[in-house]
UniProtKB/TrEMBL annotation:
It comes from the Bacteria. This is HicB family toxin-antitoxin system. It comes from Amycolatopsis japonica. The keyword Coiled coil applies. Keywords: Coiled coil. Residues 69-100 form a coiled coil.
Amino acid sequence: MVEEVKTYHAEVTRDGRFWLIRVREIDRSTQALRYKDVVTMANELIEIMDGVKEDEYDLHLEVHLPSSVKDHQARAEVLREEAQRKQAEAAAEHRAAVQELLALGVSQREAGEVLGMSFQRVSQLAKSS
């Protein structure tokens, strides 16, 4: 029979210069100066308070950030997705320009010179039609 592993939930917030770590299941807190130390500090707290070893439980972090930070992150994601779409559109337009020049009898090397692209890029675009 497989024994179920207990999961501890650590709520992490910024508190002045420190990261405050509150482990719900043991109703205790600790802190870390750097975010990279949050997991270590949470594990140490759990091990001291509950007497379990790190490989005997799972730790789930819930990082609570200010709403303004979440807003910036959400906006950045929207912009990143928009940039990806725009990049795909730009590639399609480059491809169309290359194909039109080649259809006019311009060589790939000349098309690259005219469009400010390398011969290799023109060749790639010509093959991706």
